[in-house]
């Protein structure tokens, strides 16, 4: 029986677990097109031979190296790298749903995805209905003959709800059997990453991640990735060539570099986040601290059941609403006030000013996002330095 290779080893070496002569770092194939030895290469490609490199919008060795490593992290058949997280999400939805199709989405999701489903998808003939994380049974009543995709996140952005993945899959598969056809189940696993949670093992069909975040981890690249079975990957790849969100070879090189420290970074961020959440929970200036690793989290037991660790996002809610949130963020000296997450640097952002901007009061209420919320993306800095920074900023409110 073969010993299972760990995530950290996979992210560094991919499938290259054997001696060979060559560079340690994968070269950057910074080229838009590739030379043919002769016209027979072009003929082979036209007949479907994917081993023939033709054009970097279709495939590129630097990009394929990263796709292979990310696929291995999830023990999946394949992965597709995109130029951004939204490129991955929109390409996946448009490939699997299509005109007159229907998406049933979790209501509390990343604001960019929500706005895509609200504002863009309808212009493509894609309809969206929503369900709540604490009432998965409502899925049964929402699935129709037109339903092609069920989409969700867990933990959710930014309120860190935990969705019961296995129960959701069970409900969808039951309705799928009644209809007699496939319904795809897709998850945004950005907050958890492969290190903390593998939804494929729980029956999910497709994983999307913003590679900009933990996979990249250094706030210096934009990327997205879709991970799935061979059949689904081929379907999405075939269509995505024409959507134009293809990955760039230099970005892939940066991603390959980042993957070598992926396990180290995320493990440190997990540890920092748990300790910081536990200590901030005692601060009287904070109304509540939301983190799945805290016993006070309403779905802590579920998080323990389906996650290996709890991630590095901590959301706090301050009394005084937006005024307090702004004062806190503007008073920080180490943590950075910036609109992203997952980097080695600790970043803070106010959801109503960032991920959930341009949402009505009713939509914010439905997403349970308040004006006093601040999302903390915990980095790899010294934990005590971060706590001192948070405490001095809180003291100024």
Features:
397 residues, Aspartate Aminotransferase, domain 1, five-stranded mixed sheet, 2 domains, seven-stranded mixed sheet
Structure description:
This protein is α/β, with parallel strands linked by helices. It has two domains: 22-259, Aspartate Aminotransferase, domain 2; 262-395, Aspartate Aminotransferase, domain 1 (Alpha-Beta Complex), CATH 3.90.1150.10. Helix content is 38%, strand content 14%. It has 15 helices and twelve strands. The model has no long low-confidence stretch (mean pLDDT 95).
Could you give the topology of this structure?
Layout: H1 7-13, H2 39-46, H3 61-73, E1 78-82, H4 85-96, E2 102-106, H5 111-120, E3 127-131, H6 138-142, E4 147-153, H7 165-179, E5 184-188, H8 193-196, E6 206-209, E7 224-228, H9 230-240, H10 249-259, H11 262-280, E8 286-290, H12 300-306, E9 313-318, H13 321-330, E10 336-337, E11 347-349, H14 361-367, E12 373-377, H15 383-395
Helix pairs in contact: 1-3, 3-10, 4-9
């Amino acid at each position: 029986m073969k010993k299972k290779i760990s995530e950290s080893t996979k992210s560094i070496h991919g499938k290259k677990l054997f001696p060979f002569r060559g560079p340690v770092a994968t070269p950057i194939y910074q080229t838009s097109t590739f030379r043919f030895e002769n016209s027979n290469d072009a003929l082979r490609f036209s007949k479907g031979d994917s081993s023939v490199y033709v054009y970097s919008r279709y495939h590129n060795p630097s990009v394929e190296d990263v796709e292979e490593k990310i696929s291995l992290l999830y023990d999946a058949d394949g992965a597709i790298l995109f130029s951004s997280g939204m490129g991955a999400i929109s390409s996946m939805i448009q490939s699997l749903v299509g005109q007159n199709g229907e998406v049933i989405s979790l209501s509390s999701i990343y604001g960019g995805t929500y706005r895509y489903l609200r504002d863009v998808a309808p212009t493509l003939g894609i309809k969206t209905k929503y369900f709540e994380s604490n009432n998965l049974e409502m899925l049964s009543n929402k699935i129709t003959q037109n339903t092609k995709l069920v989409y969700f996140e867990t933990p959710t952005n930014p309120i860190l709800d935990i969705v019961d993945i296995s129960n959701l899959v069970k409900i969808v598969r039951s309705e799928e059997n009644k209809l007699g056809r496939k319904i795809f189940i897709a998850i945004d696993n950005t907050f958890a990453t492969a290190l903390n949670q593998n939804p494929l093992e729980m029956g999910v069909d497709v994983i999307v991640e913003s590679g900009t975040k933990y996979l990249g981890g250094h706030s210096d690249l934009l990327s997205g990735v879709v991970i799935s079975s061979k059949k689904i990957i081929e379907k999405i790849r075939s269509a995505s060539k024409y959507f134009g969100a293809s990955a760039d070879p230099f970005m892939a090189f940066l991603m390959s570099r980042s993957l070598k420290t992926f396990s180290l970074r995320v493990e440190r961020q997990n540890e920092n986040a748990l300790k910081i959440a536990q200590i901030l929970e005692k601060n009287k200036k904070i109304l509540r601290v939301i983190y799945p690793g805290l016993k006070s989290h309403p779905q802590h037991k579920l998080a323990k059941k389906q996650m290996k660790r709890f991630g590095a996002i901590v959301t706090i809610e301050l009394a005084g609403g937006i005024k307090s949130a702004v004062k806190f963020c503007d008073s920080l000296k180490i943590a950075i006030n910036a609109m992203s997450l997952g980097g080695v640097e600790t970043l803070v952002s106010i959801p109503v000013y960032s991920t959930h901007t341009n949402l009505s009061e009713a939509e914010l209420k439905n997403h349970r996002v308040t004006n006093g919320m601040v999302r903390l993306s915990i980095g790899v800095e010294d934990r005590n330095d971060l706590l001192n920074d948070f405490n001095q900023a809180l003291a100024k409110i």
